[in-house]
Amino acid sequence: MKSDDCIIAVEDEIAELFEMTRRAERSYLRTLYRNRAHYSLNQNDGIEHDVIFVAMSPCEIYERKATFEELYAAIATLPELQAKRLYAHYFLDMSKSEIARAEGVSTKAVCRSIQYGLKSLEQILKEYQLL
Prior knowledge:
This protein has helices at about 10-35, 45-50, 60-75, 80-90, 95-105, 105-130. It is mostly helical.
């Protein structure tokens, strides 16, 4: 017992509740240890990074590059305004209202343009897959 500790008398029911909580916590810690589940995402030991960011194989890297090239080529075939709006919304992460403000048009016009652009893009990409 430390010199600054103090003893407080409590009822038996409360003391038993404290003891049950202490036992439950010890049991929980033993279970964690036995199941080798004693890792914490707050530990900064890189476990969560390894789980989330799995290294890609060279084949996967090539496939991703080819897919992006097809996507950029398909966007390039769209009318210039649709391509710019799609690029601004999906690649530059601009909201439709921000695009509308920058172009001085209504948000509805931008929404319609993006919607038509996506439909056209879908058709173009389907043709790429057939070739």
